[in-house]
Specification:
196 residues; mainly alpha; elongated; RNA_pol_sigma-70_dom; RNA_pol_sigma70_r4; Sigma-70 family RNA polymerase sigma factor
Length: 196
Amino acid sequence: MKNNEKVRCFFEKNRKKIESNPLIIGFLSNKDNLSLLEDYLINPTEDNKNKVDMEFKAHCIRARRISYISNLIHFFSQDYDKRRRKEKERNLLILDKTSTDDSEIAIIDLVKDNRQELNLPNSNLMEDVGDEDLIHALKTLTEKQLLILDLIYHKNMPLKEISFKLKTTPQNISNHHRTAIKKLRLHLLNKGEKLK
């Protein structure tokens, strides 16, 4: 019987056992281990058998270590998630409670926004302006632009506070302000040229 025949016969005879065992599949997927087994099948000496046995034992030890570490990581991560969940459930922020045992002030009163709510004073700026041309120019603005001009010039609010109240960025407020001023200037310049 030829050497390749012996190897082929061995694998055909033990195919089901090999395919059903992932440990053996992992062992034989290494080319060095496969060549050790082939050497033993071709030349079945005690020395070749011991080489295959030693390599298979080393492979099993590595597989056990990897499995152990993998399980350790898996269960540790599950345990960590459980601890975090418990911690969140135990340390709920209840705003109705007092900040300390001695205090009578609720936490919600400490974090509540006490600034005045924004009313839409669209007419306030228009009421204070006496110039008819400026009133006509103001009427060309959008409602938002008019509101921003009112908050800046009539209420003397800073851009950051306006952006907080309107729930936008200071940059956006600045852009609306700049556009409104340009519109007013253009409208007033055109009106002045028509009068000449």
